[in-house]
Amino acid sequence: MELILAADPMCSWCYGFSKQMELLLQRRPDASLKIVLGGLRAGATDVLDEAGKQFRLHHWSKVEEASGVPFNREGLLARNGFVYDTEPVCRAVVTARILQPDADLLKVFRALQHAFYVNALDTTDGAVLADVGSRALGGLGHFVTAEEFLATWKKGSTIEEAAKDFATVRGMGVSSFPTLFLKKGGALRKVGAGYAHVDELEKHLAAMAA
C-alpha cells in the first residue's frame, strides 16, 4: 500500500494529523508513505502581528482539542518580528530526503513540528533547522552533521526541489492541508482532506480496498 501525504510542518492541523499518521503506519506495516511538501506560506514576508497570533491560537486550541497534541502558546506570544514563512522548514524536510532517501521522513517531519509547536524554536532559521534535522536523522541511525545538513539546505538545487514539491501539490489539486492519498494502479485516490483520527483513516482505506 502506497500512501502520499501533502502537508506542511508549520500547518497546525498537519501537526495534529501527523500523530494519527504515525499510528496508521504502525497498524499497517505493509504501507509506505511519501511526503510531498505543501509550502502553505512559502515566501511569506508579512510579520506576525497580534491579530495573526490570536488567529493561530484559536486554531491551535481546535487542533489540541481534536488531537491532544501539545502547544507552547507562550512561545508564540513572545515572538517579535517573526515572519511566518514555511518555505525554510519545508526545505529542511526535503534536505533530509536528499541526504537520506531511505530515512523515515515522517519522524523528521514530526521532529521539526515539535521544534516549532512545543519548543518554540525559530523554524525559519537555517541553523536551527540543521540542528533539529540532523538530530532527527541521527535518531534514526543516519548520521549527518548539522554542518552537512545546513550546506545541503542552502543549495540552489535543494531550493528548486522544494519548489517542485509545492508545484506537485498544486498539480494534485490539493486545496487544504493535510491531504492524504492512496496510490493505486498508477492513480491517486483521496483518502481524506483535513484532520482525521486513525480509526477513520482505517475505515476509509478498507472501503477503498474493497
From TrEMBL:
UniProt name for this protein: DsbA family protein
Organism: Rhizobium tubonense
